[in-house]
């Protein structure tokens, strides 16, 4: 069955903070409901903990590391799921049940396996 990445966009929150406990209950309920489709995923720490790596020029060029990203938007990439679904329609149906769908947005993208199949 095809794999789909569900990219979660929400306000920039620390999901491990005690005040997020109610939201985390909603995600656990989603896991219980959609567990057969979930093949992986995790929440991401706040953008304040992120590090951006760039290589200047071609491969082997100078490595530049900076703090960030510095999000100028209300919603940031805050987590992801790897979903196994029969088709895009089923992936959308599953993604609509992820709490991020009403807290922000969920972007669903087909995964291209590294073996090209």
UniProtKB/TrEMBL annotation:
Residues 40-114 form the YCII-related domain. It comes from the Bacteria. InterPro entries: Dimeric_a/b-barrel, YCII. Pfam families: YCII. SUPFAM superfamilies: Dimeric alpha+beta barrel. Belongs to the YciI family. This is Transcription initiation protein.
């Amino acid at each position: 069955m095809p794999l789909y990445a569900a990219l979660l966009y929400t306000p920039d929150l620390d999901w491990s903070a005690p005040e997020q406990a109610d939201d985390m209950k909603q995600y656990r309920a989603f896991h219980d409901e959609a567990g057969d489709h979930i093949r992986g995923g995790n929440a991401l720490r706040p953008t304040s903990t992120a590090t951006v790596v760039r290589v200047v020029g071609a491969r082997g060029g100078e490595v530049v590391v900076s703090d960030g990203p510095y999000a100028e938007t209300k919603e940031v990439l805050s987590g992801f799921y790897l979903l196994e679904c029969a088709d895009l329609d089923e992936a959308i149906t599953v993604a609509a049940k992820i709490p991020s769908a009403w807290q922000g947005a969920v972007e669903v993208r087909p995964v291209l396996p590294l073996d090209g199949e």
